[in-house]
Write a structure and sequence with these properties.
This protein is of the alpha/beta class.
Length: 530
């Protein structure tokens, strides 16, 4: 009986021990999962400072994270190395490059690489050319179409207040959209963080000149000519076109202020009898052609029956390519057309496919379609201008100084001193413009630091320096002199007229257009009438 009692007691004890161990194991597993996984309802971490929201990795990072975009992996690692090994704990300011960093299309990923490379190369040069503080560069992803910019702006606000970061400027901004405008508005108005817009060209994203009221974007500077200035430069380059020779084709998709601004810029008064009416279309998105091909065929047929020879196109590169092909396909009794567009067309060649070139040639030696656009820069511009009759004789500083800057950038790329950052392509101007933007910020930071006690100037002191960047303090950019008005706009910034050549299947530099119809003043001194 006692043995039975012992057996019963041992069995009871063993069962409870198994239950206790099982529960303990479950508890340990739960604890491990809790440690490994984020709590329910909280976003998953992609990397330091970056969280997953809506299938995208949104946030700010300067430790080498490439946001899942292989094309920028090498340059992101180079930025991390510069931040950690060269900047480290030395006195520094942080500059954020704010761009959608997870594009779907291959062409967009390549152009993104160019932009990130430009920022890094400028950081590398500034950290070796200028005095302290050094520049720390971080990448900021606001999501597709800047749709999640609020989360990123929140992070940037915290970085501006944190003395370990000392965020002193935000640059980038490569798409003129309503969401972009909201981000810039909050950064400048509410947070007083200096913003330098390197790529957005819409007139709506600029402070008006000679304004007597409050600027819409206090602390904003921009180094790319506005769409209106680009249109003026193109008109000055081509000379007076008669109204009957031109027609406007425009994308009316909502919330794309680049298209709207460019359409208004091209709707300038021209002389002579009236030309064809405006030809609108509406695309589904920046990168989706949708059914626009059908519209373009009908529009091309109408243009064929008109007197127009020049087509002003206010739309994005994906749709510009398709329109050019449809116009070429019409084969309108031997007529040839020149399509003219804005700086957004700078990467059009990267959307072209092998058989596109033959279609633009129309089966003949001379192409039936040429596409010209106002590029904010071109690597061959300064050498070509200096080789023109009289160019070498004059050797004006507005040509020689940008050429020297261009050669310095080329030499850095060729030398490999900045490390492996992937293939650097300069012809689409994106590397040049973002590079010049970060160089402009570096100049403002140095001037601000020279006027303020301590190693890092306050935010507003940096943005106050925008209006000092002229004359002796001009920025010698690869894209031309950068001399800013009191409103923060680049004065008479040269525009490179570039043509997509179907014969060579390359981008071809044509010449320089000036928004003011004359070159920048001696020494880059901004006149009072701006």
């Amino acid at each position: 009986m006692r043995r039975f009692g012992n057996w019963l007691y041992n069995t009871f004890l063993a069962n409870w021990m198994r239950r206790i161990l099982t529960l303990a194991g479950l508890g340990a597993a739960v604890a491990l999962l809790y440690w490994l996984l984020p709590p329910i309802g909280e976003p998953e971490s992609c990397a330091k400072g970056v969280e997953s929201h809506g299938g995208e990795c949104i946030g700010v990072n300067g430790t080498g994270y490439a946001f899942g975009t292989p094309e920028i992996d090498a340059v992101a690692r180079a930025i991390a190395k510069e931040n950690e090994e060269f900047v480290g704990d030395k006195p520094h300011v942080t500059v954020a490059l704010m761009l959608p960093l997870q594009p779907d299309l291959a062409a967009e990923r390549v152009q993104l690489r160019s932009e990130v490379q430009g920022a890094y190369l400028a950081q590398y040069r500034a950290n070796r050319d200028e005095t302290t503080p050094l520049l720390r560069l971080v990448l900021a992803n606001p999501g597709d179409g800047y749709a999640q910019q609020e989360r990123v702006v929140d992070q940037l606000a915290a970085m501006a207040a944190d003395k370990r970061d000392n965020l002193r400027a935000v640059t980038g901004f490569n798409l003129s959209l309503d969401a972009t405008k909201k981000a810039i508005t909050r950064l400048t108005n509410e947070l007083h963080i200096p913003v330098l817009a390197a790529r957005v060209s819409a007139d709506e994203l600029a402070n008006p000149e000679n304004s007597t009221g409050k600027d819409p974007f206090p602390g904003l500077a921009r180094i790319i000519p506005t769409n209106r200035q680009q249109a003026d430069a193109l008109a000055n380059f081509h000379g007076e076109l008669q109204d009957e020779e031109t027609v406007l084709v425009r994308d009316k998709r909502p919330h794309d202020i680049y298209n709207d601004s460019l359409a208004r810029a091209f709707s300038r008064d021209e002389k002579g009898p009236p030309g064809p009416k405006e030809q609108p279309f509406e695309s589904p998105s920046i990168t989706d052609p949708g059914d626009t091909g059908n519209d373009f065929t009908l529009i091309a047929q109408n243009i064929c029956q008109s007197t127009a020879r020049y087509v002003y196109f206010a739309g994005r590169p994906v749709h510009l390519r398709l329109f050019a092909l449809k116009l070429a396909d019409v084969q309108c009794e031997g007529k040839k057309y020149t399509i003219v567009s804005g700086s957004g067309a700078a990467t059009l060649n990267r959307y072209m496919k092998d058989d596109d070139w033959e279609r633009l040639r129309g089966g003949g030696k001379e192409p039936v379609i040429k596409v010209q656009y106002a590029a904010p820069g071109h690597p061959d511009a300064w050498d070509r201008e200096l080789r023109k009759p009289g160019g070498a004789k004059e050797r004006r500083a507005y040509l020689t100084e940008p050429r020297a800057e261009m050669e310095a950038l080329r030499a850095l790329v060729r030398s490999g001193r900045a490390g492996d950052i992937g293939e650097v392509r300069l012809e689409d101007s994106r590397t040049m413009l973002v590079h010049d933007g970060v160089r402009t910020i570096a100049k403002a930071v140095v001037l601000a630091n020279a006027q303020t006690e301590g190693t890092v100037s306050p935010l507003r002191r940096v943005s106050d320096m925008w209006q000092r960047l002229e004359a002796v303090n001009r920025v010698r950019g690869t894209s031309g002199w950068i001399c800013l008005t009191n409103a923060g706009n680049a004065y008479d910034k040269p525009v490179a007229v570039v043509e997509l050549n179907p014969r060579t299947e390359k981008l071809q530099y044509v010449g320089i257009g000036w928004p003011e119809d004359k070159a920048q003043p001696e020494g880059c001194r901004v006149p009072s009438e701006t």
